[in-house]
Amino acid sequence: MKKSFIALLCFSLFILSYGMLDVSGASNKTNLKLNNGATYYGEVKNGRPHGKGTMNWPGDKSYSGDWISGKRSGQGKYIAYIIEDGQKTYIKYNGNWKDDKYNGQGEYVKINSYSSSSEDDGMNDVFSYVAKGKLTNNILKVGYELNSSRLATKFEYKDNENNITLTTYSDDKIKKILAKNYTPYIPYIEVMKKQSDGLMKGYSYYLGMEEDRQELSEGYYNKNRDLYTGTMYKNTEDYDGYVLSNYKNGKVQSSKVVNGDIYAIGNKKVKKQMKEIEAYFNGFKSVYDISIQEKKSFKQKQVANVSSNKTVSSGENKFKDYNGTWVINDLSYEFGDEPSGVISIVDISLESETNGTASVGFIRVRDGYIDKGAGVESKFKVDANRMASFDFDDDTYGHYGTVKIQFRDSGLVVECQSYDPEFVDEDGEIVRLTGGNWSLWEGEEEFPWSTKGVEVYDPES
User: Fold this and answer.
1) Last residue of a domain, one of 300, 327, 343
2) Structural contact between residues 226 and 215, judged by C-beta atoms closer than 8 angstroms
3) How many helices (H) and strands (E) does the chain have?
4) Looking at residues 72-95, what average pLDDT do you find?
5) Does residue 382 sit within a domain?
6) Is residue 45 included in any domain, yes or no?
7) Contact status, residue 357 vs residue 349, Cβ threshold 8 Å
8) Half-sphere CA count of 398, side-chain side, radius 13 A
9) Residue 134: pLDDT above 70?
10) 3: in domain
11) What is the pLDDT of residue 290?
12) 10: CB partners within 8 A, 6+ apart
């Protein structure tokens, strides 16, 4: 079982293609139907989308724009609405494409809502992400980002040299800050500029509530944003004064307790530095306005009849369509020049409509290198509701549990429940692990059709 999954971690995938040579000119608009249930209307060349056209996938997903030899390339818009198990997801990208990936100038929006409350029609917990600028292979390289929830909003600007982060609370405070009124509480600001030696120069100010953690630092930082050489102010445990420390080469050289108000010092520093980054406020306001507008549109969207929340019914997607490898490369360059994150992988091999084999697992990547991985493999049976499940006794870390796979019109939904015999609560009962324990991922993971056939990130590529 382990050898099989090791092979899965090392495999290389083929990009889905239409399998014909590109030898003739584009035709007039034509209708096409793909094996995965998608339909296309537009210009074609040798039986593949080529030119202008629109593709619609099962589950309320569509792309309209330019195509080259069967791949989204040029200018185009992708929109997807997904609703499953109380979670609603909206994805929108409008901009430049190359080889089915976001490449060039564009705007990307992703909104998740959770029905954890009956208030506001279950839409009270809304998380939004907006990226605007230059993207390379789906990753924002130059431009503005926003991460927002009902608890806080984080703005970020990045380019090849600079990284600026600002976090605050509530729409009212955001509007005042972007209007250059710095009276409201600003809990976090960080400004970094890359240096020729690989370090970053700048400052990082974190201000909790007055009787909370306060941490201010200025100087040079390593790629993990840890202070390398410079000065740090940090409140004492009893909040009576603060500790002033000097760092050199990542180590504390001197430290002393100062009788002073670190909160007042921090607010003074924040207000001064805010004026230095005002040039980025128009960009921050742009992604903020996009987030507000898209959340309104998402809330107004009538998703009750979206087909993606249904299991596959007879005649929609044949079981053979699910055969293959499904991959989610959840990687980012937030902490350096090399990607870090988690890759989720599911490999399906169906022998019939009721029997098959699945390999399920993850790879953790840190700074471009494979750090950890866990996986299981087993045969399974599919029931009348298109649900399969199997138990495992070792995920390569000694954990046991259950994997459930739902074959839906929108793709796969895989749920992992993991347990560790040595991980018990205060009553001695074995408790369910979370993703932080680096077993299989915790809870459900959706694998839409767009993740089928995606290449696994290769740290050596």
Assistant:
1) 300
2) no
3) 4, 26
4) 87
5) yes
6) no
7) yes
8) 5
9) yes
10) no
11) 93
12) none
Q: What range does the domain containing 111 cover?
A: 60-300
Residue range 428-456, pLDDT digits in tens: 555 445 444 445 666 678 888 888 887 77
440 in Cβ contact with 361 (< 8 Å)? yes
Give the per-residue pLDDT at 15.
25
Residue 78: inside a domain: yes
The span from the CA of 414 to the CA of 448, in Å, is 11
Q: How far is CA 391 from the centre of its chain?
A: 28
- Residue 459, CA distances (Å) to 24, 100, 328, 366, 367 in order: 38, 21, 15, 10, 9
pTM given for the model: 0.58
The one-letter amino acid code at 296 reads K
In a shared domain, residues 345 and 231: no
Task: Give the C-alpha separation, 107 to 288, whole Å.
Answer: 12
Q: How many domains does the chain have?
A: 2
Same domain, 75 and 141: yes
Q: Tokens 């995606």 sit at which residue?
A: 454
CA angle 33, 38, 40 (to 5 degrees): 60
Residue 392 has pLDDT above 70, yes or no: yes
Mean residue pLDDT of the chain comes to 79
Residues 70 and 182 in one domain: yes
Q: What is the pLDDT of residues 180-225, one digit of tens each?
A: 776 656 778 999 999 999 999 999 998 875 556 788 999 999 988 8
- Whether 321 has a pLDDT exceeding 90, the answer reads no
Structural contact between residues 67 and 83, judged by C-beta atoms closer than 8 angstroms: no
